Amino acid sequence: MRALRDEFQRFLLEYQFGLAEVETKIGILREEFLHMHDYNPIEHVSSRVKSPDSLVEKVTRKGIDPGFPSIRENITDVAGIRVTVSFVADAYRLFDLLTQQDDITIRTVKDYIAEPKANGYKSLHVIVDVPVFLSTGRVLVPVEVQFRTIAMDFWASLEHKIYYKFDRQVPAPLLDSLKDAADTAAALDAQMERLHREVHATPAPAVPVVSV
Fold first, then answer.
1. What does the alpha-carbon distance between residue 68 and residue 63 come to, in Å, rounded to a whole number?
2. Please, what sign has the CA dihedral across residues 81, 82, 85, 88?
3. Fewer CB within 10 Å: C terminus or N terminus of the chain?
4. Does 144 participate in catalysis according to the annotation?
């Protein structure tokens, strides 16, 4: 049991190190914007590595073989970082600045801003592989990065609490209200971005296209 525990800890350490690499990249961008530009698009950054209990629950729920190679292959959100930005355009700008770095490899992209989920959820998700150099050699670690506005983040936080409260069996009227709230949040994002452009006299950004 002690050997299994130690192996599990080593397994999670890779993701902690991968997360630290991406956090450093985001932190550098944040500091550059703060000191070298008149506008910093990054409002907040949070990160986590799944707990052993959470990881075991997901492996069981998805019916994945519990071996470490299988987990590495099939679960790509063991390490995650969320970047909360001011405006929708900032989400795509930060996405480009991060993923264009030459040691970052894009694995998958899910653009729930351009195509929201049915319940109204919006966020830009990307799984990137980042190199980590251990004493045993170089390993590529997947890290999930989410970019979302303050309004999107507030809505997602409330939605998560409601789903937890009702054990994912949310009554239909509440689901309808959540969707209405998501539409309101999207309208607020659009209005605030228009005001920002007017204040700074900048043209409206082109419709973003995320490519891999």
1. 14
2. positive
3. N
4. yes
Q: What is the pLDDT along the chain (212 residues), one digit of tens a residue?
A: 566 677 888 889 999 999 999 999 999 999 999 999 888 999 999 999 999 889 988 999 889 888 888 998 899 999 999 999 999 999 999 999 999 999 999 999 999 999 999 989 999 999 999 999 999 899 999 999 999 999 999 999 988 888 778 877 888 888 888 899 999 999 999 999 999 888 877 666 665 656 55
DSSP state at residue 156: H
Across the beta sheet with 105-111, the strand order is 42-49, 79-85, 137-149, 124-134, 105-111
Contact 146, 46 (CB under 8 A): no
C-alpha to C-alpha distance for 64 and 61, rounded to whole angstroms: 8
Contact between residue 86 and residue 43 where contact means Cβ atoms under 8 Å apart: yes
